Amino acid sequence: MQGPGHEYESFRREGDVLSSVDPTWYYKKGGGPVYDMTVYCLHELTGVLGSVKRVSAMSGIGLPIREWKGQKIEVEMDDNTLISLDFGSSTFGFAFGANCRGTALPRLAIFGSEGTVSVQSGRGAPQPGLGPVGSPRAAGGFPVMVNSIHVPGGEQPIDLPEMPYRVGPHLEIGEAHGYADIMHLVDCILEGRDPVPSGEHARHVVEVIEKSYQASREGRTLELTTTL
Q1: What is the pTM of this model?
Q2: Cβ neighbours of residue 34 closer than 8 Å, sequence gap 6 or more
Q3: What 8-state DSSP symbol labels residue 19?
Q4: Tens-place pLDDT, residues 61-106
Q5: Do residues 61 and 45 lie in contact, with contact meaning Cβ atoms separated by under 8 Å?
Q6: Cβ-contact 33, 100 below 8 angstroms
Q7: pLDDT tens per residue, range 162-171
Q8: Domains in the chain and their CATH numbers?
Q9: What is the four-CA torsion angle of 151, 84, 106, 118, rounded to 10 degrees?
């Protein structure tokens, strides 16, 4: 996952109720794009491919000084991290987190012997302010969400089901998946069933992140001890 930086987030525009929220804390120790953004992709990737066996990484600060409303921000946390993931059986993955990107890259891509699944930014459903499905770029220069599978002979779009609660006025809510997550938990409590994400899964992704930073500092590949 990548982005230009939190000082460029749309809600920080003048006139927004949150426009004066100081983004400095994102660049302090404990912040950074891996904890903030890449964690989502690591959950997705491990959800498909299973537990990571080993990690190696390179990580550092690409932009040491940033600016927000005339205020200089000294970056203390890595803002440019590349992670290599070994799932075993010669299955490898790559994840990154950067707050110094130049252009958009796929959110998730899985390359197989008979085709490739590519998720450009998320779902293909139209969203307020993003323009029609399939339009090349959204407002602000970000790509419209388009999902597809690439197979020999061409590209085929795939239609994913809507999240259960992302309907009606909730489509207008920023990051509406958060509302769907909350309602999924409510359903689990009412119906006495386990949530889809597990604590073991979250623990494993946290170890992937922590071991990645350690691997970068020490210049070596590290084994993971947790599983999904």
Answers
A1: 0.71
A2: 78, 81, 83, 97, 209, 212, 213
A3: T
A4: 988 999 888 889 999 999 999 999 999 999 999 998 888 765 566 6
A5: no
A6: no
A7: 556 656 666 6
A8: 6-193+202-217 (3.30.360.10)
A9: 20
